[in-house]
């Protein structure tokens, strides 16, 4: 995008003034280089969001922003129901509650490297991954509804993990006010065999080495030190979440028209928060959140079993689990008054600062862990939320590197086998069911995650704590 389209407020904050149907400005957090490299559709989408009813303060885009469905991926927007605010399925995304979970291992890199190949092979055997992958659980009827109501708490009760895990999961592992009754039978059928699976696309399970510490105090609070090994799991609500998004996207198009909402893009389909359609979507979406939390909890137990057999001295305690495709009701200050707002984060991570009451006690002094996925050939990062982020972007930060080219473009540019071989030569083992999937997710298909994270840090959205580099990656 051309920077002459913006007013520059700081080195890493750019604003598009409200014009036309926009009721608030649009703001993008990025370096000049990241702005220049963004697709023009990001500009169009972030300004389109600024026209939706009841939006407050601004429409935001994070440093990893790229074109999405309706909202940009990396988009954040807050809506006030008192002002006729809306809920938008496009503002959450199809993979409801896609997120990242990071686990400690209590091991050092050299201990992993001694069994690296065996570990990679054991993990890919134990973790179902890829398009149409299925797990060992089969959920029907009441048990499906119990999972959609209970989330990770349900999974723990079923023997997947321990209650100690729940303290380090957002919402303590269970999203309240889920309504399984408004989730279609088709969505439930799609999920029946998919619990405990990674899925495909950009989802992964990675064994990672801590190679850099930037904030000693926060790292100590998070239990991180240089050369430690951690495991990160990136996945979401699988077929159920996609089906909820598909169905409500269609019905919200009708709901918007009935409510007299003029949409600049039909992909921004929405409904008033307090309308029957809006409340139905919220109930279904919250069930989708619980599905994702339960899914990552089950995957955690599968990983623990592999380590218990191969590396019995490992201790896979949960560092944190946070989603980046959600709409949450949160209290934020706007115009000098605390308000209950519906915060859409699509490809954006919640980043509560120190002292926030939602944080676990052991993280309260330093802020929420913000888990940033990179690529299988570069790095991921752990950041910490800041108090400054509250006023910057409703306590939000980036979620990953952000795509630089489409999957189709990546397929034309890379061969999966060559990517695997090149990374193996660098000591990174890739495992997965699809050579095509590896090509689509080639490191070169993404932006420079370091530049994205540096921009988030410099903008005050979250501060850098640790850099993680891959040793083993199981790709979906």
Shape: globular
Query: Percent of residues in beta strands?
Result: 25-35%
Mean pLDDT score: 96
Low-pLDDT residue intervals, each spanning 5 or more residues: none
Helix share, percent = 25-40%
* Helix/strand/pairing category: alpha+beta
Radius of gyration: 21 Å
Termini gap: 32 Å
CATH homology group: tRNA-splicing ligase RtcB
Broad CATH class: Alpha Beta
The largest sheet is: 8 strands, mixed
Question: How many domains comprise the coordinates?
Answer: 1
Task: Give me the number of helical elements.
Answer: 15
Question: How many strand units?
Answer: 19
Structural write-up:
With 476 residues, the protein is of the alpha+beta class. It has a single domain (3-475), classed as tRNA-splicing ligase RtcB (Alpha-Beta Complex), CATH 3.90.1860.10. The chain has helices at 32-37, 40-49, 109-113, 116-126, 141-157, 163-166, 185-191, 216-222, 238-258, 276-310, 388-393, 407-413, 416-425, 435-440, 449-459; strands spanning 7-10, 13-16, 26-29, 55-66, 73-79, 86-88, 99-108, 204-213, 228-235, 270-272, 318-323, 325-334, 337-346, 349-350, 369-372, 380-385, 396-397, 429-431, 462-475. Strands 7, 8, 9, 11, 15, 16, 18 and 19 form an eight-stranded mixed beta sheet that branches. A hairpin with a 6-residue loop joins strand 4 and strand 5. Helix 4 packs across helix 10 (276-310) and helix 5 (141-157) crosses helix 10 (276-310). The mean pLDDT is 96.
């Amino acid at each position: 995008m051309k920077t002459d389209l913006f007013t520059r407020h700081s080195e890493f904050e750019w604003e598009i003034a409200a014009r036309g149907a926009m009721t608030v400005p649009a703001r993008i957090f990025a370096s000049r280089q990241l702005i220049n490299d963004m697709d023009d559709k990001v500009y169009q989408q972030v300004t389109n969001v600024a026209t939706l009813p009841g939006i407050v303060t601004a429409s935001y885009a994070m440093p990893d922003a790229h074109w999405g469905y309706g909202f940009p991926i990396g988009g954040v927007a807050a809506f006030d129901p008192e002002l006729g605010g809306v809920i938008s399925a496009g503002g959450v995304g199809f993979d409801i509650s896609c997120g990242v979970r990071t686990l400690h291992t209590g091991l050092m890199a050299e201990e992993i490297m001694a069994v690296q190949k065996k570990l990679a092979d054991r993990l890919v055997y134990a973790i179902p991954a890829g398009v149409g992958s299925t797990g060992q659980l089969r959920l029907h009827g009441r048990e499906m509804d119990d999972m959609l109501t209970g989330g990770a708490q349900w999974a723990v009760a079923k023997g997947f993990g321990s209650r100690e895990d729940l303290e380090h999961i957002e919402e303590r592992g269970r999203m309240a006010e889920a309504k399984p009754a408004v989730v279609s039978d088709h969505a439930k059928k799609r999920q029946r065999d998919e619990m405990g699976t990674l899925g495909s696309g950009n989802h992964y399970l990675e064994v990672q080495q801590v190679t850099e510490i930037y904030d000693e105090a926060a790292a100590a609070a998070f239990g991180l030190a240089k050369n430690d090994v951690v495991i990160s799991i990136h996945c979401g609500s699988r077929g159920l979440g996609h089906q909820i998004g598909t169905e409500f996207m269609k019905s919200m198009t009708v709901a918007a028209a009935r409510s007299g909402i003029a949409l600049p893009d039909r992909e921004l389909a929405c409904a008033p928060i307090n309308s029957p359609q809006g409340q139905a979507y919220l109930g279904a979406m919250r069930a989708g959140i619980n599905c994702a939390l339960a899914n990552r909890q089950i995957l955690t137990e599968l990983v623990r079993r592999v380590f218990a057999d191969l590396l019995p001295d490992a201790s896979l305690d949960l560092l944190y689990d946070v989603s980046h495709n959600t709409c949450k009701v949160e209290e934020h200050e706007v115009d000098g008054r605390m308000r209950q707002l519906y915060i859409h984060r699509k490809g954006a991570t919640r980043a509560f600062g120190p002292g926030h009451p939602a944080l676990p006690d052991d993280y309260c002094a330093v802020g929420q862990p913000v888990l940033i996925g990179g690529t299988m050939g570069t790095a991921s990062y752990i950041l910490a939320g800041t108090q400054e982020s509250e006023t910057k972007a409703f306590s939000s930060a980036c979620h990953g590197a952000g795509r630089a080219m489409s999957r189709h473009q990546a397929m034309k540019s890379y061969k999966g086998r060559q990517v695997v071989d090149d990374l193996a030569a660098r000591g990174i083992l890739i495992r997965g069911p699809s050579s095509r999937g590896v090509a689509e997710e080639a490191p070169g298909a993404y932006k420079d995650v370091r530049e994205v994270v540096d921009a988030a840090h410099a903008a005050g959205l979250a501060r850098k704590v640790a850099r993680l580099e891959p040793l083993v990656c199981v790709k979906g």
